[in-house]
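Consider the tokenized backbone below.
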């Protein structure tokens, strides 16, 4: 990770540690960097946060001042920016979003012309320019100054792309969508309506401050209750920029990213469409997923946390499915990044083709109880490598043996350590997580 760019872009509280000056400089550098041999073309999308409009203006100003032409998708999803960037010959894509974070945070996600997350070396050059270590960049003048273009048509093409991927009509299926008052609000319902579903939508009235607030994939309990109350066949919850999807079965039970990987992986394997009969997971995936995979001969890889690392593994090994427990699911045949709406469409395909409910499809996988707590610390690396903390973690690992596991890792986006335990009961998970956190506290490693 760099100074500003983490595993998912440059993220921080708007105008506190991510300011309009930062955004302007990001635009200035990218407009010059991609415009050295031709006039750069950059596409920008944003979520519904109040500050997203401010950052859109700042990025556009920087890009056009350096000579780039800027195409505005307006409120849209992160995967739509990736799709438009790679299919319509753009040099770079930018998504303004802090994903599942509260409304007062925001982020700048850079996407390369292949639709992947931007290379680390380019992000490092952007950081050097922000800190004044790169030197001056010339302003464009006269007819070399860039322009901004309303490009809502690009978002509409993405919607058409999603609709075209459905293999069956959703006629008479009662589907609930929780749009998290975010990017999915402008896209998801129109896709499901076009495919014939009886679509029931909640949290699709963004006001700039209600994104992710008691809704969406970070508050799945709201959709769970809604599905049961409305007697729906299935529900899907997205995060702020709709690159995640969690599902709810007809009984109101959560179907998380691990379970989605299992259901889709098993189906694609049966169809002969799963390269290497392998899914790509992260180290955060539940033990229950691996035990279920072993029973049906489904192979798996494990990567560091972050859909960036999942996709790198998929690309390197030509795997077709990978993702995270949090709902970032990548289907490499169709996308280069996690895509929440696409995930929900392909999960619908499995249900329709196999003529089974989501509850039936997931009954084979038994998820281990898991407790994850975030500990705000003064220095992540120092805290994780503290000898007393290391000893406490090792003690828990020995106690769990083959019946669970402990994982302590540094967050890629926040100043926290994430302490996670999987075990036979929630009570045991809580007890063991707290035992490690007590040591972190006793060692004086917590942030004040």
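A designed sequence for it:
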């Amino acid at each position: 990770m760099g100074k500003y760019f983490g595993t998912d872009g440059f993220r921080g509280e708007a105008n506190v540690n991510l300011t309009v000056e930062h955004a302007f400089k990001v635009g200035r550098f990218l407009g010059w960097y991609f415009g050295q041999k031709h006039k750069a073309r950059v596409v920008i999308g944003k979520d519904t946060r109040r500050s997203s409009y401010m950052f859109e203006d700042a990025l556009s100003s920087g890009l056009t001042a350096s000579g780039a032409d800027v195409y505005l998708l307006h409120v849209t999803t992160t995967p739509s920016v990736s799709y438009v960037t790679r299919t319509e010959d753009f040099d770079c894509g930018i998504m303004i979003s802090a994903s599942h974070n509260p409304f007062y945070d925001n982020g700048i996600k850079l996407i390369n012309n292949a639709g992947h997350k931007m290379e680390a070396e380019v992000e490092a050059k952007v950081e050097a320019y922000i800190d004044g270590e790169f030197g001056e960049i010339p302003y464009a003048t006269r007819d070399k100054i860039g322009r901004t273009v309303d490009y809502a048509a690009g978002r509409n093409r993405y919607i058409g792309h999603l609709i075209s991927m459905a293999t069956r009509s959703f006629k008479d299926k009662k589907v609930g969508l929780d749009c998290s008052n975010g990017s999915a609000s402008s896209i998801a319902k129109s896709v499901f309506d076009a495919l014939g579903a009886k679509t029931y939508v909640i949290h699709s009235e963004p006001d700039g401050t209600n994104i992710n607030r008691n809704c969406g994939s970070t508050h799945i309990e709201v959709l769970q209750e809604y599905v049961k109350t409305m007697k729906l066949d299935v529900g899907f919850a997205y995060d702020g920029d709709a690159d995640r999807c969690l599902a709810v079965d007809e009984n109101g039970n959560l179907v998380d990213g691990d379970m989605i990987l299992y259901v889709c992986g098993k189906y694609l394997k049966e169809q002969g469409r799963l390269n290497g009969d392998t899914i790509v997971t992260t180290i955060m995936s539940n033990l229950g997923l691996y035990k279920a995979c072993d029973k049906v001969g489904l192979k798996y890889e494990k990567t560091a946390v972050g859909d960036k690392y999942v996709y790198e593994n998929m690309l390197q090994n030509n795997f077709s499915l990978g993702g995270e427990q949090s709902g970032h699911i990548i289907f490499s045949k169709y996308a280069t990044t996690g895509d929440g709406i696409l995930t929900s469409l392909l999960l619908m395909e499995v249900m329709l083709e196999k003529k089974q409910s989501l509850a039936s499809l997931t009954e084979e996988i038994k998820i281990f109880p898991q407790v994850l707590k975030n500990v705000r610390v003064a220095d992540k690396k120092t805290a994780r490598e503290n000898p007393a903390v290391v000893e406490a973690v090792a003690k828990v690992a020995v106690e769990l043996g083959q019946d669970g596991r402990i994982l302590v890792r540094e967050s890629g986006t926040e100043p926290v350590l994430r302490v996670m335990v999987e075990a036979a009961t929630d009570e045991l998970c809580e007890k063991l997580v707290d035992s490690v956190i007590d040591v972190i506290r006793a060692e004086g490693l917590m942030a004040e």
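The chain is about 40% helix and 20% strand.
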